[in-house]
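Reviewers of the previous submission asked for a worked example of the structure-prediction workflow described in the proposal, so we include one complete record here. The input consisted solely of the amino acid sequence. No template or homolog information was supplied to the procedure at any stage.
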Amino acid sequence: MDYKAAFALGIPIAVGLAGLGSAIGLGIAVGAALDGIARQPEALGKIRQNMFLGAALIEAITFIVMGFVFIILQRV
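From that input alone, the workflow returned the following structure tokens.
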């Protein structure tokens, strides 16, 4: 197998795993935030702020992987 075929197989797998990991991480984070809000409604603002920050960082991982994919595709 030449390197172009390896890229053709590996890049969709990498993007798919990044998206899957991001979705799982966001689901866990939002679920935990909703559980925390249900237990302590007065902490809504702090929990929501931290959840949004965490969600942004989780999504950043997906965008970084997509950036690497585009960089790699430029070099092939």
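Residues 3-39 form the longest helix (37 residues). We consider this example representative of the routine output the project will generate in years two and three.
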